[in-house]
Amino acid sequence: MDAMRIILITGISGSGKSIGLKALEDAGYFCVDNLPPALLRQLVTSRLEDGGDSLAVSVDARSAKSLASLPEDLAWLRSQGHDVKVLFLTAKTEALIARFSETRRSHPLSHRAAISDEADERRTLTECILAERDMLAGIEEIGHVIDTSGMRANKLRAWIKNLVESDQSPLTILFESFAFKFGVPLDADLVFDVRTLPNPHYDEKLRPLTGRDQPVQDFLLAQPDAVDLLADIRGYVERWLPAVKKDNRGYLTVAIGCTGGQHRSVYFVERLAAHFRTTEHVLLRHRELD
Fold this sequence. Notes:
Layout: E1 5-11, H1 17-26, E2 30-32, H2 40-49, E3 54-58, H3 70-79, E4 83-90, H4 93-103, H5 125-135, H6 137-140, E5 144-147, H7 153-165, E6 172-179, E7 190-193, H8 214-221, H9 224-246, E8 251-258, H10 264-276, E9 281-286
Parallel strand pairs: 1-3, 1-4, 2-3, 4-5, 6-8, 6-9, 7-8
Helix pairs in contact: 1-7
């Protein structure tokens, strides 16, 4: 039996699943939107008969009744030798509310009656989002989470493209810088806080620069605590990386946070990415700079 590359893209409504599916289509995948999970095995069989070798499927809460069987279906596909990846797109509730307001679209669950004494009472948008998070919690646990809260459409397309290109690697490490004042990324597996280090922001010459610039790097290299903390984080990731690989995970997201996401966290992500890139497949993202 021939093996296929299969990507299941799912997640919270408004988080960019349509954009992600279009990016996969542009990458050469045969794409199917809003497929009921009960039809997944049948679709794979049909594509194999047609000689297909790559398939991308979008699944969401509109198929709520058959979502429970999805983990079993994915396990079966893997047992048949198929390379199966699950991308779970999500975003913070306030970001989702803003997107629905801008597009004036209704949430897919808004047309279902809420649990109340009034059969015709409808859920609010916030209630719909929370209900959908609960419905998809089991799927989120088995997928690679992508937080699209502050991500523009073109950046999401590029990010999906990078992930697809990394599919040939057993494990991809994603190093991500962020600002704590804007919240911890929802897609982080490991989170490290570097706010205890001296902040280049308070140097007027360094303030307009970022952790990518040499003067900021020189400033942090001169701080013994920064050197020690970088070594500690590097050592921790190296220590536990074999366990992540043993768990057959396709992605590991390491998030480094500081106050503004401009200097210290960016510097750390750049240094960590450079170190691990010599032996692992690495992607990096600077959330606030992007």
